[in-house]
Amino acid sequence: MTPLYLFAEAFIFVSAAWAVYRFGGLQRHAAFGFCMLIYFFLLFFTPACNYLLHTQTLNGISYAAYTEKGLSIYCLGLAAFTGIYFYTARNLPLFMLPQLLRKLVRTKAIHRRLQLLFWLFLFIMLLNIQLGGADLAAVFNFKTRNVQGIIFRSHNFSGWLEASNTCLVSVLILAAVYGIPRSRILFWSLITGFFFLFSGLRYRLILVLMGWSLNWFMKLGFSRRNILKITTFTFLAVISLQYLTINRWAIAKRRWEYLTPDITRFSIRTLLTETNNSQVFFCVLKYRDENNEPFDLGKGMFGGIITRAIPASFFPKGLKPLPRSLEVVIAATKPPDQRNGIGALSNIDEYYTSFGYPGVVVFMGLLAYFLARMPVPMTEKISAVHKADMIQENSILNEQTDTLALYAILVPGLFQLLTRGYFPQQFELYVFLLLPLFLLKMLPGKQSA
């Protein structure tokens, strides 16, 4: 049955690609296309390769007997996601942009506020590192080894302050959307990238790159005449991600002797390792079956939001309890280092372990519903604003730029939502991603007429 399930997945992906082309194109369905691209590797390509290569083990644990069940869950989730998305997109209008984000603000005021927010959140990041007991002088000293350990092993580290570092991701994306001079964006990026890289927080850099890419694509427009520019940009982006992937630990630990420009080391095996969510899920299915693990009925997905929001000092010995879903993943995969783990569940996997098959259909359907109705910026009007440096008083043009700002933040966040199946973490991520955008419109200052 495994080949049949793989064929069914392939059929869903091909049908989705045809529907995108037939009903509005890639610009209208960019968020959906982005999700399907991620799902292609997580739910189809990697399990298909592992099946064909007869490597259905993870950390010495064989999960071959649970491949069929896992693929059947993926087929159900993808079918619900695709079907509900296009039904909603064709029959219901887009959501209106939130009223607060439609408040018109002069471009110069936006630029000043973005600069204020950048330095504010950078200060918070440095303060958090210092309060945690880390030596900032050592962090800035390029001869210091394992800066990642210095930062993360500090004692009084604040989870709330650390999470606010995500706001810098949004500030960099918004800087590109609202036309901050490129020299200033480069300067901000070098400072921020310094800490993100040496903290081992590669995903935050990936979110920035995705936000910039989406902003550029939406302003440029998806058309045949721009195919060369888009292809070149995509090629360079892929090369950059490959370089970051093969060198991330050498950079984080400042082991400069292990840096390599040889991106050919990013092999098919590397890709399968980076996208091994399905292997983790199949091992979890095996563990659940062998240990009669019940569905938690949302205790992890929703109760975890409250636990994550409470400071660690309120818990015994200042340590928060591990989420049950993470305990199951650790028990099912037996990683040699429990702090780093051996992989993560996808969002579909989390829906199943929380509510079973109904959860997969309901929550994939809800995700599809919101993506189908998400406000989508109009490229031709964004371009007109962009060419005039966005100093416009026309409400439609301003609203399209604000729509792009929201879109360029929400869509990259889907990368974490889909690849890391722990909803409380992704809820927190979106809170801090959206915070700078709302602060831009809430801060006092002169509004446009």
The helix/strand class is mainly alpha
Uncertain segments: 387-397
- How far apart lie the N and C ends? 64 Å
Strand arrangement, largest sheet?
Answer: 1-2
Radius of gyration: 22 Å
Counted by DSSP, the helix tally is 20
The biggest sheet, with number of strands, parallel, antiparallel or mixed sense and barrel status, is: 2 strands, antiparallel
Please state roughly what percent of the residues sit in beta strands, choosing from under 5%, 5-15%, 15-25%, 25-35%, 35-45% or over 45%. under 5%
Structure description:
By secondary structure, the chain is an all-alpha fold. It has 20 helices and 2 strands. The chain has a two-stranded antiparallel sheet with strand order 1-2. A hairpin with a 2-residue loop joins strand 1 and strand 2. Helix 9 runs antiparallel to helix 10 and helix 15 crosses helix 20. The radius of gyration is 22 Å and the shape is globular.
SSE topology:
Blueprint: H1 2-22, H2 25-28, H3 30-52, E1 57-58, E2 61-62, H4 67-91, H5 107-131, H6 136-140, H7 147-152, H8 159-163, H9 166-177, H10 182-198, H11 202-220, H12 227-252, H13 268-274, H14 277-291, H15 299-309, H16 324-333, H17 347-373, H18 379-387, H19 395-419, H20 423-442
Antiparallel strand pairs: 1-2
Helix pairs in contact: 1-3, 1-4, 3-4, 3-19, 4-17, 5-9, 5-20, 9-10, 9-11, 9-19, 9-20, 11-12, 11-19, 14-16, 15-20, 18-19, 19-20
Give a brief rundown of this model:
By secondary structure, the protein is mainly alpha-helical. The protein has helices at residues 2-22, 25-28, 30-52, 67-91, 107-131, 136-140, 147-152, 159-163, 166-177, 182-198, 202-220, 227-252, 268-274, 277-291, 299-309, 324-333, 347-373, 379-387, 395-419, 423-442, and strands spanning 57-58, 61-62.
